[in-house]
Design goal:
mainly alpha; 73% helix; 0% strand; rod-shaped
């Protein structure tokens, strides 16, 4: 096959796009490692440090209210009562949790229909005698691989040269990449933002609790303990949203990588077949 044509800005055709596993624009300045591990490491490390800070707070502050554990007349609040006392940040986290669940359902349904088998489609093309037969054989090929391969075969039927077919394949891959990466940045944001919002709510609750201590002193430590427990509910809620978001982001990213690897292999074999069958 002829050398791959260069695009403006040094971005090569669909194969380079596939190997990076993301949309590459000609004016892009960001460079991401091909395996995507660096971004996942940063996301995991951010959550780790937030959890570590929360654990430190939860171990340090209860020392101011250790007498509260000996008070027999303390009324234990229910979980619903603590949620109601969580404040504005807890309502924000509730809204973000609904938003996150919506994204998870949408992405799950999308990737469920995006799965395909490029190798199976290429095998059907090999068995076909003509391009018309090949187009008919893969007419109902499922998933992203089926759509991209149908685009390339149809271009060959229409009489395009191999370089033009490669350009059309590149365009089809870019279009599919846009769909595959849709809402993934939002999920990534939930991983970092929700624990920070929860930590903000916890900090505000601590400020209020120590305001009570400054006003009445340590004569009634149960009030301080109650304020601390209410404040920590925000952090727990933030982590409850962030942890599933992190799992879902990595899961969908893995699905995307698997689809791209399958598509790269199928397109490479298809271009070899078309090169041998199309006059240069």
């Amino acid at each position: 096959m002829r050398p791959l044509p260069n695009r403006p800005g040094g971005v090569r055709f669909w194969r380079a796009t596939l190997r990076r596993g993301r949309i590459l624009r000609t004016d892009a300045t960001e460079r991401v490692p091909p395996n995507g591990k660096l971004g996942r490491y940063h996301r995991t490390s951010r959550v780790f440090w937030i959890v570590l800070a929360t654990i430190a707070i939860s171990h340090a502050l209860p020392s101011f209210a250790q007498e509260a554990t000996t008070a027999s007349a303390v009324k234990t609040k229910t979980f619903w009562e603590m949620l109601q006392a969580g404040g504005l940040t807890l309502y924000i986290l509730a809204g973000l949790s609904i938003f996150t669940v919506t994204l998870l359902i949408e992405r799950f349904m999308y990737y469920r229909g995006a799965a395909g088998n490029a190798g199976e489609s290429v095998e059907k093309i090999k068995q076909a005698r003509t391009l018309a037969d090949a187009s008919t054989a893969i007419e109902h090929a499922p998933g992203i691989a089926g759509r991209v391969i149908r685009t390339a075969v149809q271009a060959a039927r229409d009489g395009y040269k191999i370089e033009q077919i490669e350009g059309l394949a590149e365009s089809a891959v870019t279009k599919e990449l846009i769909s595959m990466e849709r809402f993934l940045p939002q999920l990534d944001s939930m991983v970092t933002m929700c624990p920070l919002i929860g930590l903000l709510g916890t900090t505000i609750g601590m400020i209020k609790s120590f305001g009570v201590v400054a006003a009445i002193g340590m004569s009634d430590p149960t009030k301080l303990a109650g304020g601390i427990s209410e404040a920590l509910v925000n952090t727990a809620a933030g982590l409850a949203v962030a942890i599933p978001s992190l799992f879902a982001y990595n899961y969908f990213s893995g699905k995307k990588e698997a689809i791209l690897m399958d598509l790269e292999q199928g397109l490479t074999e298809l271009m070899v077949i078309l090169k041998s069958s199309i006059p240069q």
